[in-house]
Amino acid sequence: MILTKGANPEINVVYIGAFVIKRLQESRGRKMKITRLMKLGESELSISIDHMILTLDWLYTISAIKQNNNEVSINETAQINDKG
Asked: Which of the four CATH numbers 2.30.40.10, 3.50.50.60, 3.40.50.10380, 1.10.10.10 does domain 9-74 have?
């Protein structure tokens, strides 16, 4: 993803995604209810629910997180392809 110059990082999925992953890593069991994540995003980043949903969709699409019912967790089983 190319970050545009002058773009507000607080509403960028990469920035918000890092926030989500960090919160999940710090949480008990490395998982959290979606509603809790929404509230944290709103209170700590002052972002809308739309930005959080977009970010969760993006993290799920790149297999960084997995979703089970109303909880989100880090996808520990995702394979990382490092051919460098």
From this structure: 1.10.10.10
